[in-house]
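Appendix B. Raw example, untouched.
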Amino acid sequence: MNEQSTRTPTPVDAVAEEYLSTLAGLHPIAATMLGLPGHDDRLTDFSPDGHAARAEATRHTLAALDGLAAVDETDRVTIAAMRQLLGLDLEMYEAGETEGSLNVIESPVQGLRDVFDVTPTSTEQHWADVAARLAAMPDAVEGYIASLRAAADRGVVAAARQVAVVADQAAEQAGEASFFPAFVTGQAASAALTGSAGGALRADLERGAGRAQEAYARLERFLREELAPRAGHVDAVGRERYERASRHFVGATLDLDETYAWGVEELARVSAEQEAVAREIAGPGASVADAVAALDADPARRLVGTAALREWMQATADSAIAALDGTHFDIAPQVRRLECMIAPTQTGGIYYTGPSDDFSRPGRMWWSVPADVTEFNTWRERTTVYHEGVPGHHLQIGTAVANRDRLNAWRRLACWTSGYGEGWALYAERLMADLGFLDDPGDRFGMLDGQRMRAARVVFDLGVHLGLPAPEQYGGGTWDADKGWALLVDNVNMSESFLRFEWLRYLGWPGQAPSYKVGQRLWEQIRDDAASAATARGETFDIAAFHARALSMGSLPLDVLKVAMAE
């Protein structure tokens, strides 16, 4: 790269830092998620005015970049990444997608609650911030409702299926099972609040929890009574909206029809590989179902209860960090700590939240376990820990956050592309198999199970949302939600509650689910191009150096990463 190990900040860095600071002020939920202090007492303004203010800040930043020349390679990458990501943000806003955001997993409905999972709660001042944030919930919900109305007036409304399920989620937060009352009276609050001041603050917190419940009740009524009648019953979003969403999530412009055809081929290839391992596990002629039954019946691979699950997750993550550090990766000291958590929600999702800028809040892997799921099988989940932990998300995100000497704060904390991040995590699962960490047939079978699911959802997502032809096996005609469900049942080994959540997620969040497998594909292409270039120069390809360089750049759009790695 021909640059000093510690860079002198440039005018481009200053623009990026100013944008991050402005964004933090305009989007306090994002600031808390990124670990940026000073905004934990407020909620994001999700009203049309709030969205407009963030869009204007984006336009201002892009204009500021127009007059700047890159000083070095890092600047060139920053400019390319900001132009692509901020430009796509504006496209999404101008199309009404931002105002109309509503789905079962990633929209203001979930964000307004989930932010409390990472809001600091160690001190009395932290809890004062929580009380202020809870008190702001009614206004935040009203602003969000106004945006949903504005988007609906433009014809951008989530499908009826999404509206109905999200209304159920809002009802849960308004009712007896609500997160908020338990949160403000739980162990963390009791430990931090003492004395007379603590008593007064407890009263504020309880009032705030009640206001949050009332706000979610208001949201539920709006969704059922006003938005649901305006929602259509077609889940597919069509090619124009899907193409925009795909570029947003992958960070690359895809040939969607070629990608669908590749997805069909990849699903067949991974299925054949998994079937071969199934015979290794359960004997000649055994099916995948036979192997699943044999693995599920093995008591050595079974965990009972979420406490046992969390302990196993933590031990597996810690073991991987110890084994990989100093051998295949040089892991920064701050990144060697990963916390495995059981989420307070019960949606079925598994996800990662990154460390704060100073690592006072560590990276965390969260498992949101449905109420009816009490047993877990390690053969399914070892590869999941590698995906969320090391060498997956925790290594990728933690490495960027730790790279203070070379990257500005926007690059380290806020530059995120699903195709890069989720593609790397899926690439990391295969890497762990290649490195011998999944030599046990059951664990390898589990990795292939995950790869098969990710390939199936490429077919599902593009097939359903683009209205592509469905094979006769699934009824012919065009793909729809019901045919997609049959595809998932045939290819994904999950409990019905987990699988139903995944099905709803794909229907309501177009373009995101394929970014994992498509991102893995592009990562592998970039790696193979680097290996070919090394061979052409008469050099031995150093895959460890390739990984180190790519991860040191942060979560770039994959089109930008491809150019940067080629240089």
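End of appendix B.
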